[in-house]
Amino acid sequence: MTPALVSFCIPTYNRARYLDSLLQSLTQQLADFPHAFEVFISDNGSDDDTEAVAARYMDALPLRYKRHASNRGSSANYQYLMDQAQGEYLVYVADDDCILGHRVAEIIDLMEANPAVGIAYAPWKLYDLVADKDQGQFYQQDRDVLIPQGQHQMLLDTLLRYSIFPEIYICRRNLIRTMMPSVPEQAFYAFVHASEFVHQAAVLFLQEPYYISVTNYFADHQRNQAGMGEAEHAWDRYRGGLEYVLGRASQQVSPMERIGFGLRIQEMIAQRISVAVRLRMAAQRNPVETYYLAYRLKAMGAEQQLPVPLQALRSQAALSFLLTDTELNRDVTELVFVGTYEPELRRHVEELKGARKVRFASTPSQVGSLHAHNLVLVRGTPAMLAELPQDSGARVVHEPALLQKFAA
User: Are 6 and 37 in contact (CB under 8 A)?
Assistant: First the structure.
């Protein structure tokens, strides 16, 4: 057999249905692939029919399958793939995405003609298979950019200029083995890896994608996407990764340039925090946590990037805190709201009340009796507090005092 020039590296775990679709796609995308290749699957100990799916494609693809006895973790599985792949070029493919075979071949030809280039990054297309809809690209470049070996300053400038997340790439195997990539917790791995790569070889950022990230695969099943979940909370790791690149460039930048890069990093992190707030709101995450995250944009002077006004997030956080704080709600069996409350807020209360009863009263005189198991929110003047039944043992919260906890 001709030794593989290209290894398509696929980590997988308990997603046989997705893997089946990917392998079917690869039989089409690689039917006329001009280079010898292998499809290398590393199964992280799946207990579904992943192994049977792989077996069905042994005759259709030059497929190599390895099943681990137990789940080694995603990072260890990735490292195993990159270390054990046999091709001279490594192409990572998630088990629920796909690639454009002709475009991969073009990139391999380009790298073969340019031996100084150790790795080629590219943006990725977003595609909804269920709706059969192209959703654009994750980031855009106006041209290809070649970063010469050792040019950390140019690398950082390029990452920030195009808001690049260097996660999708085709890499020479010898560069991977020289670099021995790991996945740090404190700094986003992709920025760290890009800095380590450029220290060893020239790095190419391509304008045109070869990779397709499938946002919606099956109408009857929605899988968890690691990237989407990470985008909700990884802004500090993103900052750490970019600051790592700046640190590697420290001998190439002046003190003023360092300040400028610091500000540009902050701008990119502000963009990512605004995305995190939007994703958290769409997923109905904890409003208190979302509020504190949004407030960081205010500190950065980037409040205008929020998807909704900060005041709205403040109100949601205050209500959520009232209804969910452990100590406020200890032994509470009934919630009482005094004042005028809009229908949307009433619906939100119904969603969060759990087993507790709920009463709404326009005025204190309509409240009736209170007891020690009541939590009361009063919306109105301080005088309304005095009109409530006294010495009932109820926990009474005045809305202005609640809002003071959450700054505008």
Answer: yes
Q: What is the pLDDT of residues 373-393, one digit of tens each?
A: 999 999 999 999 999 988 899
In this structure, is residue 156 part of a structural domain? yes
165: in domain: yes
Cβ atoms of 317 and 360 closer than 8 Å: no
Residues 40 and 116 in one domain: yes
Query: Which tens digits make up the pLDDT trace of 324-346?
Result: 999 999 999 999 999 999 998 89
Sorted by sequence, the CB contacts under 8 Å of residue 122 that are 6+ apart come out as 107, 168, 169, 170, 205, 206, 208, 209, 210, 211
Q: Is 261 found in the same domain as 399?
A: no
CATH number of the domain residue 178 falls in:
3.90.550.10
Which residues, 6+ apart, have CB-to-CB distance to 255 below 8 Å? none
Task: Determine, yes or no, domain membership for 221.
Answer: no
On whether both 52 and 85 belong to a single domain, the answer is yes
pTM of the full structure:
0.87
Question: Which long-range contacts link 174-183 to residues 24+ away (Cβ below 8 Å)?
Answer: 174/88, 175/118, 175/119, 175/200, 175/201, 176/82, 176/83, 176/90, 177/83, 181/79, 181/82, 182/75, 182/79, 183/75, 183/78
Q: What is the domain extent for residue 39? A: 6-216
CB distance 163 to 270 below 8 Å: no
Where does a domain end: 286, 309, 332? 309
Q: How far apart are CA 174 and CA 190, in angstroms?
A: 18
Going by pLDDT thresholds of 50, 70 and 90, the confidence category of residue 408 is: confident
